[in-house]
Amino acid sequence: MHNTALAIAWAERSLIEHGYNINSPLEPVREMPWSSVSRFSTSQGFVYFKQMAEPFAIEPVLLRFLEKKLLAKVPHVIDMERSFLCFLMKGSGTTLRNILKADYQTDLVSKTLKMYAKIQLDVIKHADELLTLGVPDWRLAKLPELYLELISQRDLLRCDGLIDTEITTLQHLYPKFCELCTQLAAYKIPETIEHGDFHDNNILLEDQDVFINDWGDATISHPFFSLASWLNSAERNHALKATDPRTLMLQNAYLTIWQEYAPLDKLIEILSVVKKIRHFQFALNFRRVNECQGMDKLKQFHGYMADALRDFIAIF
Predict the structure, then answer these.
(1) Distance CA 276, CA 303 (A)
(2) In the predicted model, what is the mean pLDDT of residues 292-304?
(3) Which residue range is the domain that position 61 belongs to?
(4) The domain spanning residue 39 has which CATH number?
(5) Whole-prediction pTM value?
């Protein structure tokens, strides 16, 4: 992150101006190429200081919009500073993943998914406003253009592990990708906010309140990409297979909130199409991560884009 010392000085001044007494020096929490998170212990509890890479700098603007306009349960932004790509937010508890690792509480997860789906419904009428604010446009009509843009970056794809024949296959699959987007659009589920990294480690719990955190990856797109992301994460981190009754319960908890647009069986059919496109959508999102300075040093993330695109190829 750039100008870190100046950004920290800004954060300290801002806290004092907003009535916070700082009890201890800034403590690092997480340092990644796409964002850096630290926290202050203050007279009003923990306050988190986050610096972002440019592709994810919409986060504090979006958080304020969601909280003030929609009264959504998201972390409260105390202050932001565009010149340093940073903001301050109040602490909002512990991550849901920590709780679920000890005891996978399906009712709590269902509550979270329903709450998130209602936020998405509320945003539908504000989608154009969010696009104007700078939230990326990944609507279905735009995805074919983004597909061509990504697969034309041959050097980037090669560096991530794809070979030339695989890139050529992706080029040949462009008409199939367009067909999937057209098929999904025909169901007429309104496009809205899509979190971009929706899983239990981005959910915070404080007392009885649930907060949805880490919105820097958000786009305006098909809402069900979020559910596909959640279910994929639940399989990886909690071994919830597609055949697990809890998976079906969670899937239906989210989808029932959308029944004004289609019956449940049709919504499940729509989700099956979403899951096919999501392989590309994941790769597209991870391109933003891969382009952050310093990613070449984090070998554990090498191949994420390539693997997702191979999964897309495997559909056909």
Answers:
(1) 19
(2) 90
(3) 4-90
(4) 3.30.200.20
(5) 0.96
